[in-house]
Amino acid sequence: MEFGIEKILTELENDTAGYVIRCESRYESQIREAAQRIHAIRHKRPIVLLAGPSGSGKTTTAIKLTHELKKLGLGSVSLSMDNYFLDYDPETAPRAADGSRDMESPFCIDLQLMGQHFRELTEGKEVVVPAFDFGMEKRDPTKGTPLRLGEDEVAIFEGINALNDAVTQFEGVFSFKLFVSAASEITDVYSSRTTRLIRRMIRDYNFRSASPEYTLYLWKNVLEGERLYIEPNRGKADMEIDTFLPYEPAALRKYAMPLIESIPEMHEVWTQLSRFPDVSDELISSSSLLREFIGGSEYVY
Length: 301
Description:
Strand content: 5-15%
Structural class: alpha/beta
Distance between the termini: 29 Å
Helix content: 40-55%
């Protein structure tokens, strides 16, 4: 879907608070639909695979999905596929075409173990979900989490490669597949890639001690990973969720513009962001997806 900037600016000028609520409601309604569809097939397909590119808000979407499922009487647990990362070995780690480490590859994941867990959870067995220590770049064997699904429970596995052939070959026919992306755009102003890059720059700066220059440096490999591993599998999804919030350029500009103003490659984005008015943080709910990137969320990430 595409939005026109003039309509967005008019909405923001006439009823800022109401427009923020309407944008959030559009996103929330998709999550409710997904929850209803998962609930309807819960006994046959108790595994939910939730995939999407970087900066899409997958984690918030997974959390919100667990809340909606609970309203329907269905228990759920949300798991990051990052837990299944293999211990880093420089000799066997996947490499990109330029020889650099390829963190986007599905082969960074212990596919055999995850596939085993898919089967055992579907059979009602208990598994121990591993815990990966990114500082040490290996699993912490003291922090595994036992998990068993009850009769009215589902497991949500969230990760960029959740729909990749390398993953889905293990899940049989026991999963409901979701693709999450900031798919909509503001015509000739704000592309879906720009949305995700801005979100990621803000998040990386706020929570990962990464400069915007460093995030931009990594972005080329991120996009190449998406081309190779994510987009080709998009068509497998049972449903897509669009996380783009049309008011977000106005909400994020005060965070993004100081970060990118001195980066030549981001000059056009800076110029486009300057066209929007500021939206006060007070209008952004503590449950908003944007809180995943700017902070102040009621959810624990």
